[in-house]
Structures are given as structure tokens and as C-alpha cells.
Design brief:
Strand order of the largest sheet: 2-1-3
Distance between the termini: 18 Å
Largest sheet: 3 strands, antiparallel
CATH superfamily of the largest domain: Peptidase M41
CATH class of the largest domain: Mainly Alpha
Structural class: mainly alpha
Number of strands: 3
Strand content: under 5%
Shape: globular
Number of domains: 2
Number of helices: 10
CATH topology of the largest domain: Methane Monooxygenase Hydroxylase, Chain G, domain 1
CATH architecture of the largest domain: Up-down Bundle
Helix content: 40-55%
């Protein structure tokens, strides 16, 4: 994947095809798109041009690029989907749980945006963006990531008094990280710096061991115990943070139910005990839209 300089150069190539506003800075966009491939960046420019066209704007501005990034990272909005009020409230608390834990823990990526507008297959999204390119993860950052993943389910239980299926992907990701810490990355003191199993994804936590005779049953039990230890400790940590900051979770859920989407500045207001500032006004729409496929406009993104 391209680094920040590579992303900037790729963006500049594709931005030549669209009429961009003076406020658009490829360097800033590149800084906010770590992990994007060249195809992702081409798609970003194309989507930004389409957002501008839908609003009859003559130039593609930074707001259009921000919306395009949200679509690529979080999925397309499904505003036609009408959620029952109870499910809406549950989603607001779920996403607030993720966001509050992420804001309170060290070594977590900044919370860029939280929304309860259904996107892709998700009912809501807490979007975190790293501040810089990262090529490896240390143990503390991995543990914090696991705790953040548990924040959603914990908030559901504490504030709604129920559990839903919405946390299934969170659990899957948390378990996969904990398993890799123990079996691949040597981050368990009890198991030491050793790789256990040729393909850990098929061995531990109830998976088949027919092709992994090099791992004994006793060792497998120790591995599972270490995975469980990491999971339990981070779940307990996330629960304590949410219990100690109930007011912030309540305030964030209330803001989400009212505004549907809150950005980093509004999230910080809530964490500081202030009412969230009003949403930024939408950009003004000049006259003529950039036409997709026309000279000076973005070319359609490749279909994958």
C-alpha cells in the first residue's frame, strides 16, 4: 500500500480530472486516508465528484471528499431503512460505548466520526482513523483495540438491559486479535515467544486439529486459557470505563439520537462535559455540476 507521499501523488494524478475547489489539499486528504490503495484513492476522487454533481456544485470541495471517504470506509448510507425507535436507541448506546472507550484508552486511533445512520450491513458505525501510517501493532495498542470492540455490547447491557446480535462482528474481531496475540505474535507471558500450530485459524477454540498433530491437547488448553484471559481482562476494563463514565455515554447517545452523526469536535465536546456544538452547515451549491465522464470530471471507478 502507498505511504502518505505515495497517496498524495496518486491523488494529484486523479484530481487533475476533476474541477476542485481551492480549499482541496491533496496532502491533507492523503494524511487522512492511511491504508487506502491506489484503487481506493481513485474511487475517492470519483465519489467526491459524484457528491458535488448531486448538489449541483461547480467545484468539488473538501466536504465532498469527506463524504466520499465516509462512504468508502463506512459503506453507503441506507437512509431508506427505517429502524424501530428501540433499535435506534440501542444502536446509539452501542456506538457510544465504542466511542467513549476509544476516547478514554491510550494507544487507540482517534475517533473521527460516529453515526447511527445504517451504512452497508451495519446499523451504526464508530469510525476511527490512525493519525499516521502504521506498519506494526504493539501489545498495548492491541489490548486497547480489543477493549474498544467490547464497548458496544457492554453499553447495550448497561443502558438498554438487553443483548443483541449487533456485537457478533465485534466479538469475532476481538477473539481473532487475542488468538493471534497468543499463537502468532508471542504476546502471552505464559506461552512465550513461540508460534503454536501451522494455521491457528483452524486449531484453537473448537476448531479442527486433524492437521495439527504438532500441538498437544494440553498445550491447546493452555492456549485457550490465555486467549480467555485476554478477553476477560479487556471486557472488564471496558465495563469499568463505561460505568465510571455513564454520563458521557448518555450524553453521546442523546446527541446521536438527535443528530444521527457526530464528528470529532462534537465527540470531544461531550467528553469535556459540554453540549456538542451545532453541526457544520452544508456547503453552498454553485451552479453547474461536474459531469462524470466529461472532460475535467472523474472517470467511473473500476468495478470489482
Amino acid at each position: 500500500l502507498p505511504d502518505i507521499r505515495g497517496r498524495e501523488q496518486i491523488l494529484l494524478v486523479h484530481m487533475r480530472k476533476v474541477p476542485v475547489a481551492p480549499d482541496v489539499k491533496a496532502e491533507i486528504i492523503a494524511r487522512g486516508t492511511p491504508g487506502f490503495s491506489g484503487a481506493d484513492l481513485a474511487n475517492l476522487v470519483n465519489e467526491a465528484a459524484l457528491f458535488a454533481a448531486r448538489k449541483n456544485k461547480r467545484l468539488v470541495d473538501m466536504d465532498d471528499f469527506e463524504r466520499a471517504k465516509d462512504k468508502i470506509v463506512m459503506g453507503a448510507e441506507r437512509r431508506s431503512m427505517v429502524m424501530p425507535e428501540e433499535e435506534r436507541r440501542n444502536t446509539a448506546y452501542h456506538e457510544s460505548g465504542h466511542a467513549v472507550v476509544a476516547k478514554l484508552l491510550p494507544k487507540t486511533d482517534p475517533v473521527h466520526k460516529v453515526t447511527i445512520i445504517p451504512r452497508g450491513r451495519a446499523l451504526g458505525v464508530t469510525m476511527q482513523l490512525p493519525e499516521q501510517d502504521r506498519y506494526s501493532m504493539d501489545r498495548d495498542r492491541l489490548l486497547s483495540t480489543i477493549a474498544v470492540l467490547f464497548g458496544g455490547r457492554i453499553a447495550e447491557e448497561l443502558f438498554m438491559g438487553q443483548m443483541t446480535t449487533g456485537a457478533s462482528n465485534d466479538f469475532e474481531r476481538a477473539t481473532a486479535l487475542a488468538r493471534s496475540m497468543v499463537t502468532q505474535w508471542g504476546m502471552s507471558d505464559a506461552m512465550g515467544p513461540m508460534v503454536y500450530g501451522e494455521n491457528e485459524g483452524e486449531v484453537f477454540l473448537g476448531r479442527s486439529i486433524t492437521t495439527h498433530k504438532n500441538v498437544s491437547e494440553v498445550t491447546m488448553q493452555k492456549v485457550d486459557a490465555e486467549i480467555r484471559k485476554i478477553i476477560d481482562q479487556q471486557f472488564a476494563l471496558a465495563k469499568k470505563l463505561i460505568l465510571d463514565n455513564r454520563d458521557k455515554v448518555e450524553a453521546m447517545a442523546k446527541a446521536l439520537l438527535e443528530l444521527e452523526t457526530i464528528d470529532a469536535d462534537q465527540i470531544q465536546d461531550i467528553m469535556d462535559g459540554r453540549p456538542p456544538r451545532p453541526p457544520k452547515p452544508p456547503a453552498q451549491a454553485p451552479q453547474q455540476p461536474p459531469q462524470a465522464g466529461a472532460p475535467g470530471a472523474a472517470e467511473p471507478a473500476p468495478v470489482s
